[in-house]
Structure prediction request, 291 residues.
Amino acid sequence: MPIFNPLLKAVSYLPLAWLHAIGTALGWLVYFVSRSYAARLSENLRQSGLFASEKEYRQLRRAAIVEAGKATVELVAIWFKPDHAVARLVREVRNLALVEAACAGGRGIFVLTPHLGCFELVGFYFGQIMPFTVLYRPPRMRWLEPVMVNGRRRGQVELATTDIAGVRRLLKALRSGKAAGMLPDQAPRWGEGVWARFFDRPALTMTLPNRLRRATDCATFMVFAERLPRGAGYRLHIEPLPDSVGDESQLNRAVERIISLQPAQYLWSYDRYKIPGGGAADVLDAPRTSP
Prediction:
């Protein structure tokens, strides 16, 4: 593990409000230093249309810059605080009874967590209450992987890499009535997705979530951890995904709806519209958003 882990563990004991204050400064620093970051964040947010005027757009952009910084620094708390301390950060959980009812019926629980709010906390929370297999993509920076793995492998969480073996582990968990989770808005590699509109712009969209849903009798939920003001903690939102959501365009609409609950907390700097290497973007047939 990196030699600076003891330092990060010490920093994790700072109050969440302090960490978020540091994150606020970091968010603005990165925005002003990196032109590409600033351009992508601004462009993706404007593409969303989640504002009624230019004034609202500028207000939302300022809030998104701050929230992106908080999302980075709060990882120190989620990954390094003791389990009981992280659990105390969850102040409210909405619609947990729906998950409990699905479990009681013997169904697998499929948790889809977009890049919204504190998405790292979602995996931690479900891993505290049930066996939970999470799909993850190893980071490009090799030194970060052991930090990430140790931070995420808490409680009953098991990690599955984004390969055939990892997909089989998710499938096995869902078929056996356990829980599995993944990011539904992660940009897939070439050959792992189809073009579908996301905020009315073509985006290569993973087919795996819907394939897993069709292959199992799982109950699917969109979940995000809302970041509460002044470092007060987090509120978990659990929204059932109807069985009628059957293709990638409909899945993107569901992601858009949950983002609209807290648009400032979406990671607008994420390169959602990138074209992976190995293919060309034949996007003209991507279906438009239904009115």
